[in-house]
Amino acid sequence: MTERIGLYPGTFDPFTLGHADIMRRGAKMVDRLVVGVTTNPSKDPLFTPAERMEMVASEARRLGIDNVEIKGFNALLMDVAEREGASMIIRGLRAVADFEYEYQMAGMNQQLNAGIETVFLMADISLQPIASKLVKEIAFYGGDISRFVSPQICELVAARVDQIGRKGDK
What we know:
Elements lengths: L4 E6 L6 H13 L2 E7 L10 H15 L4 E6 L3 H8 L3 E6 L2 H17 L4 E6 L9 H9 L10 H14 L6
Parallel strand pairs: 1-2, 1-4, 2-3, 4-5
């Protein structure tokens, strides 16, 4: 029997409870889940790719997910999926705005390789409002992000914000 491999890509800056939920559920659907930590030139990352990869690995260990492999990439998603032998791309959805973007991306990816399916997982209802961008914004203004990230990630974000400096303190 062929090993089922899924690819869950993202910038994960920082890795939220919403990401953890999709990773946990996605890992149940495949024999091996590759979490691809990517760069995105349109985003201003708080953490380096290596730091984000360690965040994801730490969260996978914390959740006891043992069929997850974390890899960094800066390439076309479908090239990475093919290289990893993935038969599916796993993406999380929070709202209609996510769906419109993800639907377009899935269509383009299908044009590149129709043999790789895109699977959408709806975020748990309690986690739907969480977005990394908003978590960072709350943290930079001194707000409490503990409801959106694990305690370990909360500490990492707080330390980085302290290092960079909070907004409004200048």
